[in-house]
Amino acid sequence: MSKTNRIFFWLLVFFLLPWSDTSLWAMKTADPPSSWFIDLSRFSRSAHGSLTCEQCHGAMKEKDRPHPNLQDPRFLKEEATRRFDYKQCQACHRLSYERYLKGAHAAALEKERKGLTNTPDLSGKKNPAPTCGDCHSSHYESAHRSRLETGRWMTDQCGTCHPAQKATYLDNFHGKAAVHLGNTKAAYCTDCHGAHTSLSLKDKQAALQACLRCHPQATLNFAAQVIHPTLPAEAKADPEKAAKVAVIKWVTVVMGGLVILVVAFFYGHSLVWLLRDLHEKIRKRN
Questions:
Q1: Are 161 and 127 in contact (CB under 8 A)?
Q2: DSSP letter at 69?
Q3: What angle, 0 to 180 degrees and rounded to 10, lies between the N-to-C axes of helices 94-101 and 104-113?
Q4: In the chain, N or C terminus with fewer CB closer than 10 Å?
Q5: Measured between alpha carbons, how far is 238 from 229 in angstroms, rounded to an integer?
Q6: SS3 assignment, position 11
Q7: 3-state SS, one letter per residue, for 204-252
């Protein structure tokens, strides 16, 4: 390899290395959702691969009828995640299941079952209340993931129903450090909201307790800062946050305009200086 090629090679490594980790993460495909059809080869390599079907699905009967019931006109027309009884999960995941029952997702599911409309997200789309299978790929999810792998995977999972919150998180210091830079000491979604309780943290005391986990000197004023400056769906429900978000937007616009003016001034100054220098050279020649 010639000297020129070696220099080019190391320059390429220098510029690509900082982005390689996040680029590979971006190219990874998420685990497919649970469905009626299972790839047994992938299932055997998953966290549940050592379990038999009966350990999770029982006797494979629905209301004393065999499953699958080919005589049922609804057969395979409903989502698997909506039909499965997730009480089975507590046999191995008792603590996680108990926390889920106390959380916001379980409360939303109860409202859904009572026929109450669920709250739309910031895009106006109504998502079904999440069950275990909506967040976890029951048949394909791998075990022994590192904190970084779990955090990045979790960011995508939460973002399917909370896209605006995901965007603001990734634009925040927490998201940049944890997801993009791979800093495992930075906070992921569950570090603040809980993995299964899924607290909204609108209550100031609850928000403070979340902040204290990483910031032992935090006060109520510290916890009151806006982490997710999202608005439309919650403007009426939380006027205090709406006012703060409005201030943030105005400050962003003003500071952005100031940056543009400063850059324009210095580039303009440099351009005028170059023109003056060019003029002096031409004048001396003449």
A1: yes
A2: -
A3: 60
A4: C
A5: 12
A6: helix
A7: HHHHHHHHHCCCCCCCHHHHCCCCCCCCHHHCCCCHHHHHHHHHHHHHH
Phi, psi of 62 (to 5 degrees): -125, 115
The 10s digit of each residue's pLDDT in 121-174 is: 444 556 788 888 888 888 888 888 899 999 999 999 898 888 888 998 998 899
pTM: 0.67
The more confidently predicted of residues 10 and 100 is 100
**C-beta of residue 105 within 8 angstroms of C-beta of residue 130:** yes
Residue 86 DSSP label: G
Q: What digits encode the pLDDT tens for the residues 7-25?
A: 555 555 444 444 444 444 4
Token pair belonging to 282: 């031409």
CB 84 within 8 A of CB 136: no
CB 85 within 8 Å of CB 93: no
Q: How far apart are CA 197 and CA 225, in angstroms?
A: 22
